[in-house]
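Structure ticket #2291
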Amino acid sequence: MTKIKKKHKVLKIIIIVSAMLIVLLGVMRYLFGNKEVMFGANGNAMSYINDVHPNKYKSVDEALLDVDEKVKSEKQLCQIEDNGIVHVYMQGYNNVKFEEVDINRTNTYIKCYDFVTVSDGYNYSGERNLVINFHDDKKYTWKETFLADLFMSRDAVYRGAVEKKYKVLPAWGVTDYSDISNVTVDDQKIDEVHELDVDGKTYYLWIINDLKTQNEASEVRIESVDKTTQNR
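Resolution: structure written out below.
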């Protein structure tokens, strides 16, 4: 009976994961229509609202304490204010454990919390969560992962929530490409690069404060320090 129960648990997990994937694909189809969905080594998720949160905070620190339940255990990487939007990048860890299917791992994630400056305070807009090297069972080139992260920045729900109203579109992601600071996107340079230590391996958080290109992520021109150009 014990073995049967374990098999049932494994089956339930498989069904739940499959259902989540189906829902995710449905949501992505709804958000992106017939656009090409791009994938890379990182996992991305977003939580934005169509308008800013009605609660007004006196400071960004006060806002973080309210919207980020793990703020005290996370490391703040940087805080950037551009065109009335404040972006706070945090690094943290999640433990994922499923004994029935022999999964026990610690994921490193980067979260970006976005706040809109208003008179005498800040309003919360939303967050994006990136899990580093989430799809480690597959092999992606650094450009594939870069474009996938760019795709999430360029084409996802953030555009409808903030960019349309505040005319600013930050783009960011994580890569293991050591020369990422010399990469350009349709001739636009990366504004900031922050080095990350993930289980003894070096990764880099790259940030473009306001992405200017009007091309879709699948169509942008990526140039690196060695002048290798990718047209897609």
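Closing remark: The longest helix spans residues 2-32.
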